[in-house]
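Hi team,

As requested, here is the filled-out complex form for the beta-D-galactopyranose run. I kept the field names the same as last time so the parser does not choke. Let me know if anything looks off before we queue the next batch.

— J.
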Amino acid sequence: MRTPLLCFLHSLLVILYVAPASAYSEAETSWPETVRFDTGGLSRESFPKGFVFGTATSAYQVEGMAKKDGRGPSIWDVFVTIPGTIANNATADVAVDQYHRYKQDVDIMAKLNFDAYRFSISWSRIFPDGVGKVNWKGVAYYNRLIDYLLAKGITPYANLYHYDLPEALEKKYMGLLSYKVVKDYADFADFCFKTFGDRVKNWMTFNEPRVVAALGYDDGFFAPGRCSKLVGNCTAGNSATEPYIAAHNLILSHAAAVQRYREKYQAKQKGKIGILLDFVWYEPLTRSKADNLAAQRARDFHVGWFLHPIVYGEYPKTMQYIVGKRLPKFSKAEVMMVKGSMDFVGINQYTTYYMYDPHQPKPKLTRYQMDWNAGFAYNRKGVPIGPKIHEEVYKLAHMQAYSYWLYDVPWGMYKVLTYIKEHYGNPTVILSENGMDDPGNVTLPKGLHDTKRINFYKDYLTQLKKAVDEGANVVGYFAWSLLDNFEWRLGYTSRFGMVYVDYKTLNRYPKMSAYWFKQLLSGKKH
Ligand code: GAL
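And here is what came back:
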């Protein structure tokens, strides 16, 4: 237990050692050797042999060059142009310009002792129209990135889809709502395996398909911004059916890509392929049976929606029962393709909520979120579930109406990993995202003093280790994110990075948490 006095002294010590920002050269990653961080006893030795530590980003959030070098638009390029959608009406046209600064970013990763980098490949940078003509400049970019990663000893983990469907396919056949996307996606994936698979041995098909389906088609908060009239301010959509159709096509697309990889490439290239799922831990608010069932429904509608078909070949029974005819069915042949379609599962874990049974008769409004028939709570008997990380951020983004989602609840990490172990046959898991943000307006040098982030990482990693020590088959951990970047609806008003980006100059400044990782990972790989 650290007393408040100790915490205060620690912060003071840390502040005393931080030089003014002007003292840093760009990408400078040295730090007074005298500073030793508290890693909570964690080191490489605390984790199993070969455990991989990396950082994660996604194409649209970091690359920039959104309209250049032949890239076609994705649904996010269109979405961000709707006035009032993104905080300060920002776009990711430039983002943090990783397209040009990738060498510098990879150098930073290497200096911080990371083993791996999880990035995503922008579909519309490779196929500007989603299909057909290849943009070779885009291919060349990913070749440069991959080659440089390997040259610096960083293992590439390539994700093929991070919210960014080519707009051409949205226009052509309504994107994920059409079964046609399955073949087009598999073709794109096939091209990537063929082109980059000699060097990329770790593939991920989709990031957070649940977010894609729920935020894209239930509440319209993310692109393509579709929802029912009574749900939100969308121009079109059907929140009762479309989330389920989109999710179904996402699962089939994932499975079709895995099939291609396994049939055509895996034996020769010797890589692995998986999917990335977000998983909030849902803890029953009380010990009542009703609240326990509500929490279970929440887990089924969240991670079970995708993991159940992939592991067991069908949607969770709770979903089949509640959603009924609105839930698409897998044909026998599709079950064969979907079941077992992963070598590992990536889990993005940030936060935890209490769930309770609202004891309501059937909700009037039929939509995905209402199908859960479960209420969210953030306090138990007046005690908050954990400190709320970033209320300020939403105020900054003029979105006070939104209750912000990130509560600092490290024990949720343990519960999530234990749940996956127990309910899904202890699959190989990569903890593929974890992190927290600071408000976007924090300036230098204050923005570098991220002691809160250090504690966040330390506490969550401690819980991850506990799950691993008890047998959860977790083989890697990726922090979100390497550097501050375009945070979707929040634009640049939220900073998730362990490296600070000055948005005027795009210079990079590693924060204290980056040095914390450097120390954590300083031991010999074993
Ligand atoms: C994840 C998402 C990332 C990043 C992060 C922080 O859900 O995959 O793109 O934005 O959340 O909000």
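Two things worth flagging: The chain is about 40% helix and 15% strand. The pocket of beta-D-galactopyranose is lined by residues 58, 61, 207-208, 211, 278, 348, 433, 480, 487-488, 496 (CB under 6 Å).

Thanks,
J.
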